[in-house]
Amino acid sequence: MTSPASGAQLNAGTQKAITWTATDNVGVVSRAIYFSSNNGTNYTKVDSVLGNTGSYNWTVPSQASTTCLIRIYAYDAAGNRGTGLSANFTITATGIVWNNKLSIPIAEKYKVTIMNIQGKELAKVEVKNLNEIDKLRNKLPSGVHVINISAGDKKFVSKMKIIE
Hints:
164 residues; Immunoglobulin-like; single chain; 1 helix; mainly beta
């Protein structure tokens, strides 16, 4: 494994090249890539193909974690398998689907308040994952709203526009 590097910080929703070197005396004929957000307790398949390109353009998932790993299996024509494992890296939730300009750090919980442009509170929740905020968006009326997010001692404010 050559990338992601140890300690790398990747932003959710961005593109990142996963890179590796795989060799075999009779040639590598296929490979499979797996991702873990919990230090290898569970893995999900990212991609599996014939051939060995040495690189895969990956869309970083929205699973904020400081214990992420990539595992690659490379297979030769005889079915022998070699394994590559990245060192731990971090995925940071960077804003919300409708406003990726915010750089919101990983936190245990987020306090979220959404108000309409006149200042009337429309929603107030505490969530563990920023993706949960997206569910609120579907329940809000159309219009321009102000979203306040607190992560620890940091506060983030942004506008969002909902169009039906």
